[in-house]
């Protein structure tokens, strides 16, 4: 008799984005004449930039020529890309990360989920609430939790509520976690962590022998000079933090697929006798056993982001999204909303009006303004009463959507 992994039965059935899709389909089928503007799912809208496209094409051509053909590449990524990452994303910011610490992959979603495999079953996991749903769901899948309680929390996870009371930055938990997921700039709240905040977490992890799993997928959107782009800008972080980065939002690779994970040599975790072991060899073993590398043309395309021209082009696209965010912040504030994020992140997080529930606000916005956003409660119970707008949109749609929202009556 084949047995299933029963942890999957604990997961909540209706995942956020399918439910949004269902409600939007229902509305558009009933109202085929209405133009619905989508600012819901966190997917980019602008095409790959010319430098990336050119390198991508060249990579494909090389594969079609016997003298330049490539089969399997190194599982951890080609040296040309790992070097470019180490030099430009880290060493240029005064952070001593080596190419050898970098593992190129097909996505940060996969990496943030898969990373748990190299850590023991008895780890206590701390997760922000609200946040990117992948951390909690993969913790459940891995068997580290009990069932989902009525309040939306899974038994066994340490939740760290992030609300306007604490500026959407988590406080140190009262129960000691072993693994701590942090995500800055944050999805969904669009808020960032200062050097002081990150230092507090790094010191806490050192004191408690914990590991921080730091998701920096939106690092490229940081505009404020004082905000760290990498957790390794904090002293001591190399001993206690793994960093996840992705080209998805940085350079429009959501469909192309390329990301990377950094595991410094100094990072240790412990066996049941309390003896320290370096973590990097475990991930090396996992990665090389279960993953066969990102395709060569995609890695060539990713490396083009680090050329002078590529960097300029990618910056322009990010500036475009951030200008969308600025317009949204300004319009929503004028329309009387409490608005957060959207300065160092492509997400604008608003408090609904009159204490409306997130999904009620979603329905009102869809039905009366034909605008789709994301209900905050879909990211965790503390997101209830909030709503996320994505700045990954076309400018004309941003103006139209803001005008329609302005005209809503409550
Ligand atoms: C979009 C996103 C990612 C990137 O995932 P990929 O698999 O690399 O596309 C990672 N973390 C967060 C929080 C995200 O929103």
CATH architecture of the largest domain: 3-Layer(aba) Sandwich
Helix content: 25-40%
The CATH topology of the largest domain turns out to be Aspartate Aminotransferase, domain 2
Beta-strand segment tally: 15
- CATH level-4 homologous superfamily of the largest domain: Type I PLP-dependent aspartate aminotransferase-like (Major domain)
Distance between the termini: 57 Å
The CATH class of the largest domain is identified as Alpha Beta
Order of helices and strands: HHEHHEHEHEEHEEHEEEHHHEEHEEEH
Oligomer: single chain
Low-confidence stretches: none
Radius of gyration (Å): 22 Å
How does the helix and strand content classify structurally? alpha/beta
Structure description:
Helix content is 36%, strand content 14%. With 410 residues, it is α/β, with parallel strands linked by helices. It folds into two domains: 138 residues, Alpha-Beta Complex (Aspartate Aminotransferase, domain 1), CATH 3.90.1150; 254 residues, 3-Layer(aba) Sandwich (Aspartate Aminotransferase, domain 2), CATH 3.40.640. The strands form four sheets. Strands 2-8-7-6-5-3-4 form a seven-stranded mixed beta sheet, sandwiched between helices. It has a four-stranded antiparallel beta sheet with strand order 11-12-15-14. Strands 1-13 form a two-stranded parallel sheet. Helix 6 links the parallel strand 3 and strand 4. Helix 4 packs parallel to helix 10 and helix 11 runs parallel beside helix 13. The model has no long low-confidence stretch (mean pLDDT 96). The site of pyridoxal-5'-phosphate has 14 residues, from helix 5 and helix 8.
